[in-house]
Amino acid sequence: PDQSLGHPFVEFQDFTGTLKDKSIKPGDYQSVQVGLLPYNNFWERIDQHRFCSDQGDVKMKVAKQKDQLLVKAANVTEANGYFHTVPVTGSSLPKDSQARVRETGVYMLALSNCGDVRGITVSGSVIVKNAYGFLPGNDYRKMPFYGWLALAYTVLAFTWMAVSLRWWRELFTLHYCIAAVLFLGLIEAFVWFVFFKDWNHFGVRSRILFILAIMSTVVKSVFSYMLALVASLGWGVTRPYLDRSTLLKVQGLSVLYIILDFVRQTVLSFRHSHTLSVSFVTFCLLPVAVINGVIFHWIFTALANLMETLKERNQTEKLRIFERMWTLIVVALTTASIALIVQIFDLSRSINTRWRYEWFFADAIAHIIFFLVIVAMMYLWAPHMHSKRYAYSQASTQPDEGSKVVANPDTIWADEEPGEEEEDETLWAMTHGKSTQESKTTTATPTTIGVAATDVNNTLSTDHIIDVDTFLLPHQVPHQVDCEEDEMLAAF
């Protein structure tokens, strides 16, 4: 790492030992020690059967003095160990000490009491500063990673904004949702970068920045998952809104996910510093894994139903996009599953070998996959001159342009009541060119919805507006259009 901030060191600061029994006078008690020892050779330096030194060890120059932690070296510096004797109440030992760290690696914090005085409460701080700052070595790479990730999201956001401004008339709900995901991704990466930068500079975690960073991650995740879910359910594509029961399920799942994922992120962040047990960490991770499984099962089920609906409606262009979206989700989940398997396998290895790159599997992989997925979604749903063709409209049941269509009134009007059939027969035939009395046929497409009938056989005046979506519903014509039937037929 960069040596610009000086050599790495460890400092034992404000350490004191307090006796519970105030009647004991320990005098110059030097048997309470705190120290750092390398993880890779800890049990080579410490005798598992005899931890403390005696007078014989001092004579043999194995230890400096008796009743202290016995390290298998004549000089503790050779063992790459760093020790500090804790002053007990009433002693005159120095309180603070500092030592230069000479070797990169994982260290274990050891606290020992080799004397005969019991009931001592020890308090103090161990400050470790690396050559680049105060960040732990296993978290250092996260700071530049989030910085570059924030820059990448900025580029994506400006690109999406430029394309959206170019085709602003063609935007619909999904385009705004993609912009929101980009904004949340940018906020998340920026807040995490600021959090690690602040921690590296001051040496303590900012509680406010930590909570903001966790919440930004949770909100981005739940918003993205729910967006994929409601899009798979056809919202904004084949239906204008979701029914109430489905909406309540989505909202309940979102709230539950936010709570459990916040707990999961917090546990993962403090699992090393607070030495959390594997069983406790697993207990906190399992509920989120189950919810993720439920969400993706729902997404795939809804997406399959949506594609079947688009096939039945012969809407090939929409179908093609959702087939690519299906493939994209499958590839992303497969990649994430492989990364998870590798991470689980890697956990069986010693921390002394995996600490350098475990951040990549724990943090980077998920962000990289998400970033690539959002790039692919931007490509699939990029605004263009025909963007609204993919959005929902009341005429969205019409097939895509260029698809082969068979006019079958019995199929299209399958939801009509039996009593309406005779009443609408003449209207259907005449509006679809089957009447022998018409000399000219006019075709209505979704792009002519709401157009003014300015000059159609000089029958209607310029202030009459025909809403084709309303007009295509025969049983609603008498309630929606104030024109005479002959006028409407001529205008159509």
Verbal overview:
The chain is mainly alpha-helical. It has 15 helices and 6 strands. The strands form 2 sheets. It has a 3-stranded antiparallel sheet with strand order 4-1-6, with no helix packed on it. The protein has a 3-stranded antiparallel sheet with strand order 3-2-5, with no helix packed on it. Helix 4 packs antiparallel against helix 5, helix 4 runs antiparallel to helix 10 (358-380) and helix 5 runs antiparallel to helix 6 (244-270). The chain is elongated and about 95 Å long.
Q: What is the structure about, briefly put?
A:
The protein has 492 residues and is mainly alpha-helical. Helices cover 49% and strands 9% of the residues.
Residues in helix, %: 40-55%
Helical run tally:
15
Count of strand segments: 6
Task: Please describe the biggest sheet, giving its number of strands, its sense, and whether it closes into a barrel.
Answer: 3 strands, antiparallel
Q: What separation lies between the terminal Cα atoms?
A: 76 Å
H/E topology pattern:
EEHHEEEEHHHHHHHHHHHHH
Mean pLDDT: 76
User: Which of globular, elongated, flat, extended, rod-shaped describes the shape?
Assistant: elongated
Secondary-structure-based class equals mainly alpha
Main sheet: strand order: 4-1-6
Radius of gyration from the alpha-carbon trace, in angstroms: 35 Å
Q: What fraction of the residues are assigned to beta strands by DSSP?
A: 5-15%
Residue windows where pLDDT falls under 50 for at least 5 positions: 394-398, 401-492
